[in-house]
């Protein structure tokens, strides 16, 4: 692994909800272009970690730096406008697609670029069409979310995130609300994104995707990273007993 500055750096992050520790000293460095897949038992803190990176949650201690800019830490107090600007480095895709139900596919995609970035509508529309083609939905720009399958909605959600030109994409179980036949089409879009060099942190239990796409697979257990390994090692020689148990359960 190169020694260049990481695009995402998480240093000894702790977070509790009330008295309950959820993240217990998480550190993670992600280089530009890397794909990280995070797996682990329910309740281990995977979603909380992504939400802390995206500043949807505050941290109790530690530091989070994205694209060389400190976003969270004991000495970091950003004004809302500054925080909003830094958050534009990050795109997030959730399990539930969260599209605006009253807006067409096209308007879902151009809403933030036109309102937040001030990109002229014609240009945003042209860019949205390129993205819709990339996610395999060139003919759906006038459809409304409820007219689309779950897999199609999730691909629109990915296009919508990409329209803000993020440097890092965060995915929280993007396929776990989908019927099996729709999972593949979403994973194919994510695979394409990784081939294009996007930096991605993906919470997923799709181990075939992880094997094919990930540079490193992480196992989180009770708020800690207990393994952080390239796929070959993760599957054949994990260091943690928790990873062995996870794999035994997942891979049978
Ligand atoms: N807003 C909250 N308030 C209190 N507790 C919370 C909150 N959000 C999450 N938790 C708790 O934090 C722990 C970690 O939750 P988190 O959602 O990060 O786990 P996860 O690894 O994503 O699990 P899953 O695989 O089920 O999605 C859980 O015990 C959860 O109940
Ligand atoms: Mg979760």
Give a verbal description of the structure.
This protein is of the alpha/beta class and 252 residues long. It has two domains: 1-89 and 170-252, Rossmann fold; 96-165, no CATH class. It is 37% helix and 25% strand. It has helices at residues 46-53, 80-87, 105-115, 121-134, 150-162, 180-195, 207-213, 231-236, 241-251; strands at residues 8-17, 20-30, 35-39, 61-66, 69-73, 90-93, 168-172, 199-203, 216-221, 224-229. The longest helix has 16 residues, at 180-195. It is globular. The mean pLDDT is 96. The structure holds adenosine-5'-triphosphate and magnesium ion (MG). Magnesium ion binds at residues 46-47, 172.
DSSP summary, beta strand count: 10
What is the CATH first-level class name of the largest domain? Alpha Beta
What is the CATH architecture assignment of the largest domain?
A: 3-Layer(aba) Sandwich
Bound molecules: adenosine-5'-triphosphate, magnesium ion
Q: What number of structural domains do the residues give?
A: 2
Strand order of the largest sheet: 6-7-8-3-9-10
Radius of gyration: 18 Å
Kindly summarize this structure in a few lines.
The protein is an alpha/beta fold and 252 residues long. The protein has two domains: 1-89 and 170-252, P-loop containing nucleotide triphosphate hydrolases (Rossmann fold, 3-Layer(aba) Sandwich), CATH 3.40.50.300; 96-165, no CATH class.
List the helices and strands and how they pair.
Elements: E1 8-17, E2 20-30, E3 35-39, H1 46-53, E4 61-66, E5 69-73, H2 80-87, E6 90-93, H3 105-115, H4 121-134, H5 150-162, E7 168-172, H6 180-195, E8 199-203, H7 207-213, E9 216-221, E10 224-229, H8 231-236, H9 241-251
Parallel strand pairs: 3-8, 3-9, 6-7, 7-8
Antiparallel strand pairs: 1-2, 1-4, 4-5, 9-10
Helix pairs in contact: 3-4, 3-5, 4-5, 5-6
The protein binds adenosine-5'-triphosphate and magnesium ion.
């Amino acid at each position: 692994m190169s020694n260049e500055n990481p695009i995402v750096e998480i240093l000894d992050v702790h977070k509790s909800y009330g008295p309950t520790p959820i993240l217990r000293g998480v550190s993670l460095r992600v280089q530009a272009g890397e794909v990280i897949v995070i797996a682990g038992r329910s309740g281990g803190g995977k979603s909380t970690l992504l939400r802390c990176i995206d500043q949807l949650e505050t941290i109790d201690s530690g530091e989070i730096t994205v694209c060389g800019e400190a976003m969270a830490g004991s000495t970091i107090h950003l004004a809302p406008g500054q925080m909003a600007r830094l958050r534009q480095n990050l795109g997030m895709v959730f399990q539930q697609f969260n599209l605006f139900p009253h807006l067409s596919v096209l308007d879902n995609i151009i809403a933030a670029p036109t309102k937040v970035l001030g990109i002229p509508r014609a240009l945003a529309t042209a860019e949205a069409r390129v993205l819709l083609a990339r996610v395999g939905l060139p003919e759906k720009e006038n459809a409304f979310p409820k007219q689309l399958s779950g897999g199609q909605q999730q691909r629109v959600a990915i296009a919508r995130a990409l329209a803000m030109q993020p440097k890092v994409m965060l995915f929280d179980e993007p396929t776990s609300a989908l019927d099996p036949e729709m999972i593949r089409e979403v994973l194919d879009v994510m695979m394409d994104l990784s081939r294009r060099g996007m930096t991605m942190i993906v919470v997923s239990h799709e181990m075939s995707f992880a094997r094919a796409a990930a540079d490193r697979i992480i196992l989180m257990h009770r708020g800690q990273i207990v393994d952080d390994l390239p796929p070959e090692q993760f599957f054949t020689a994990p260091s943690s007993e928790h990873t062995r148990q996870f794999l035994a359960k997942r891979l049978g």
